[in-house]
Write a structure and sequence with these properties.
two-stranded parallel sheet, three-stranded parallel β-sheet, 39% helix, alpha/beta
Length: 235
């Protein structure tokens, strides 16, 4: 589908491409924080698929001059602060929505995959970035391409790491609910720690995140509380 899109772009004379990539392209980190120069060695199919697309788009630049910006998200989270749009996946796999659905009683318990990692509390550590901050980065990326007319790649994260147990605690604090938790075996392809190095985005795009993890969770909580069945509840 990416190739189809690129072919249509060529037919239409469009030579700018902003791609929603992922920190999953880096795989298991060899250094923390992870900057854009980090080796890209994905350890799961999702990251591999994102890297494939980056390679395809880069090839189209060499062949046809399509410029690109790769925005490598860390963990996108949160909801529209005005309560119009939130996360509604099926099946849901993201930690914050799953915890909120458990707090609301829609799910019976939350499953933690592994509590024996070499981290402060044994659970994986991740970097979370609010969707509104990601949206802001997209606007800045388009403006950059208009003025600089060159390709680049940028990490998007908060440069802060939170363990799974810490996120559970924060959702409990926001919701006022105790969340039942089950600890089980690790999932293959889950690195212990992923934290973004975002210096490049700050210096070149002038981008920085504005939403704390607490505010990110609060926006998600308010949306799910309003629409516990997701968009099926939206009138």
């Amino acid at each position: 589908n990416t190739i189809n899109l690129l072919e249509v772009m060529l037919e239409a004379g469009i030579k700018k491409f902003v791609f929603s990539s992922s920190a999953a392209t880096y795989g298991n980190p060899v250094k923390i924080p992870i900057d854009e120069a980090h080796p890209q060695v994905p350890c799961n199919p999702y990251g591999l698929s994102k890297l494939f697309i980056e390679q395809i788009v880069s090839t189209y630049e060499r062949a046809y001059g399509i410029k690109h910006i790769y925005l490598r998200y860390f963990n996108a989270a949160g909801a529209d602060p005005e309560g119009r749009i939130g996360e509604d996946h099926y099946p849901e796999t993201h930690i914050i929505p799953l915890l909120i659905l458990t707090a609301l009683g829609i799910k019976k318990q939350f499953t933690v995959f592994g509590n024996d990692y070499e981290t402060s509390d044994g659970t994986c550590i991740r970097d979370y970035v609010h969707v509104m901050d990601i949206a802001d980065a997209h606007v800045k990326a388009l403006e950059f391409m208009d003025t600089e007319k060159r390709s680049e790649e940028f990490n998007l994260g908060s440069s802060m790491g939170y363990s799974v147990n810490e996120i559970i605690s924060k959702v409990e604090q926001v919701s006022g609910k105790k969340i039942p938790v089950e600890y089980t075996e690790r999932r293959e392809g889950d690195p212990a720690i992923l934290i973004a190095g975002c210096k490049k985005a700050r210096e070149i795009l002038g981008w920085r995140p504005h939403y704390s993890i607490e505010k990110t969770i609060m926006t998600a909580w308010e949306w799910h509380k309003k629409y516990p069945k997701g968009f099926k509840d939206v009138k």
